[in-house]
Automatic annotation (TrEMBL), chain A:
Pfam families, per the entry: Peripla_BP_2
Domain Fe/B12 periplasmic-binding: 96-368
Record lineage: Bacteria, Pseudomonadati, Bacteroidota, Flavobacteriia, Flavobacteriales
Protein's organism: Leeuwenhoekiella polynyae
InterPro entries associated with the record: ABC_Transporter_SBP (IPR050902), ABC_transptr_periplasmic_BD (IPR002491)
UniProt-listed PANTHER family: MOLYBDATE-BINDING PROTEIN MOLA, VITAMIN B12-BINDING PROTEIN
Protein name, as recorded: Iron complex transport system substrate-binding protein
Gene Ontology biological process terms, A to Z: cellular response to iron ion
Automatic annotation (TrEMBL), chain B:
The keyword Hydrolase is assigned to this record: no
Protein name as annotated: Iron complex transport system permease protein
One family name in Pfam for this protein: FecCD
Protein topology in the membrane: Multi-pass membrane protein
Transmembrane region(s): 44-64, 76-103, 109-130, 137-160, 180-200, 228-259, 271-290, 297-318
Major localization class: membrane
Amino acid sequence: MIKNLFTTVFLFSFLLFNSCKNESKPEVSENQQTSKSLVEFATGFDILDHEAYKILSVSQAWPGSKKTFRYALLKEGQKLPDSIEADAILTIPITSIVVTSTTHIPALELLGVEETLKGFPNLDYISSPKTRALIKAEKIEELGQNESINTERAIDLNPDVVVSFGVEGENKSLNSLQRANIPVLYNGDWTETSPLGQAEWIKFFAALYNKEKQADSIFNSIKDNYNSLKKEALKAKKKPTVLSGAMFKDVWYLPKGESWAAQLVADANAEYLYKDTKGTGSLSLSIESVLDKAQNAEFWIAPNAFESYQSLKETNDAYTQFAAFKNKAIYSFAAAKGETGGMLYYELAPSRPDWVLEDLVTIFHPELNSNKASHFFTPLE
Amino acid sequence: MILLFVVNIALGSVLIPLKAIIQIILGDDSVKEAWQYIILDYRIPKALAAIMTGSGLAVAGLMMQTLFKNPLAGPFVLGISSGASLGVAFFILGGSALGLSAFVVPNGWGTILAASLGSFAVLSIVLLVASRVRDAMALLIIGLMFGSLTAAVVSILAYFSPAEELQRYMFWSFGSLGDISWDALIILSFCYFIGMILAFSVTKSLNSLLLGDHYAQTLGVSLQKSRFIILIATSILAGSLTAFVGPIAFVGLAVPHLIRQWFTASNHWTLMPACVLGGAVLMLFCDTLAQMPLFEFSLPINAITSIIGAPVVIWLLIRKKKLLF
């Protein structure tokens, strides 16, 4: 009898759960023909301008996401038609913002709106000098950890919008912010696989500030720079072989053949030794298989966080067996750090693939572009 | 305790003057909206959750210690929190490790649901075993074995998971009283009151159990029935609290001891209400500390409860020189 009582009690509370479900299945009834998509390369988001309102949709908030988030952007005086449902509604242009990833910072700076940034979790990660100056002037509030933002501080700041990277599952602090009527947008720039696609996410931020024209011209100049570098690289006489990554506790991680990094190497007219692997994430290989396949790679780029040949040798003697080690042909971005230790590459590279390409072309084909100052990659010490 | 409740609401990461707090509670709308939200929808639910967590776990711990006649028993000795951890691990880490696609769960209830399902699964197995096994010690050992089993499965899932998911799982396991919505609080209080009613209904049996199983039977206590109720009450309290707030260590284990030393009584009619009060007070105090008033970061509640509680228990035992169990 006690067991029955317990079961009924539990079932009852389960029913209570269900009665609290939120309905939010958006009904797409907008006329697709009146709006033009403004996004060329990126596959994870789209902006549809309907004159009376704008819809910013994020289809890949995290890898493999099946849900498309739709955010309605309304100018002053506009109202969203009742037939359109959105996961968040914003009035643009916004005047204050909280972002949660360093990859969002360059977009703000390029658009000239970095002063609207009011809070950020883990301020020490930010490398860019412009934003660090704002941090020093105490204009940007520290919000704790990315995974559990300090809810009280974030609510007190009362930003117009919080841009977070999407999480599978849920984030309690973000839920609290949404309950406090602060819109939370998911930014999936890190899921984008093509270099120009990732840079195009500047348009995501531009839509919030009504600065689409500016974003277009910035992106077009990055795109043109990228494409001209790509063409230039094709003039090279040789196509060198390239290795990437390093070991982390017995496992060598390197980018798969269709990933962002691999595409950059291919566009720099070099032969990434693992370019035939399928997928966009990372490979986990053993030292033996890497040694077997890549011992004679002419160049080795991005050996994790190593900054010197000495530290490579001390960590694992096997590294010294690589031809690139012996010929001192290893290039790393680990030396480019911000004032407080943040890695500049992680922050800026996704927004400026043309600079990364420039570095790579200079490294792989020195006869084409000598005397160009490097943006991220420097030879290992 | 009322004083501590007020102090808990008054202190936090954002400095809100006491006058404003009183205004907000009295319904005055002129105070800054963000502050209204913080007090009414963040700090007050948090304080209420702290009271329920502290008292619920303390009472559950007391029942476990009496049932198993073991001073080291706590509310999670049956493996409830291990079951909840396993459920949450599957939810958070299972996505990439096992290739499970994220099913869309109503906003924010995913971890709660996963934890409840996990504890419920363990509870069913424990009740099944309890009906077969006469000896209470066997239950204890089975609970411990569950703990090891789930820890092993979780470590396999963790091995294949990316860093962000691991961090999220770890943060869940640190426990968090904040960010609980009023809806969730209502459901939690529902489970809490059921658990407490069941717990108080067996106070007499708990007293008899202190004398030993056979003596208790001669006093007219039905061993099977009271064991069942004790197990269910503990599971409801421990399971629902873990589901909503995460696994909070130490409180369930230490507060009964603190109360026993303080009150030097073994009558459960005294001990149970005292544990309710003592648990709530301890939790409110630890939560106020964990919020690190005026600092921008806050500490995980699990760490604070242990850092504060352990030395206190040690000091008490050294002072009194014997356990008084």
